[in-house]
Amino acid sequence: MQLDKRMLDRLLGMSDEQLEHVIRQIAEESGIPAEQLGLDPASIQSIRLALGMANDADLARLGEIYQQYLRGRRER
């Protein structure tokens, strides 16, 4: 998944329910059980706020972290 400003704008334009669904889907596809996320309305709002403040450098770093995580999972 490539997270760029365009994708970020799409995520921010989603309802809370849609955003939560996407987060759960990404987690499950990454091997993280969705129930471990502890998502509730307040955490969705916190995620939305953090995404809204992200700049290009933040998005690039997030992509790097995610790729490292995926590589680590494959090596197990």
User: Gyration radius, to the nearest Å?
Assistant: 13 Å
Series of secondary-structure elements, N-terminal to C-terminal: HHHH
Q: Give the percentage of residues in beta strands.
A: under 5%
Structural class: mainly alpha
Unreliable residue runs: none
Helix content: over 70%
- What is the number of strand segments? 0
Biggest pleated-sheet summary: none
User: How far apart are the first and last residues' alpha carbons, in Å?
Assistant: 21 Å
Global shape = globular
Report on the structure:
- The protein has one domain.
- The chain contains 4 helices and no strands.
- The mean pLDDT is 88.
- The two termini are 21 Å apart.
- The chain has 76 residues and is mainly α.
Strand and helix map with partners:
Elements: H1 5-12, H2 16-29, H3 41-53, H4 56-75
In brief:
The chain has one domain. 72% of the residues lie in helices and 0% in strands.
Which labels suit this protein?
about 80 residues, mainly alpha, 4 helices, single chain
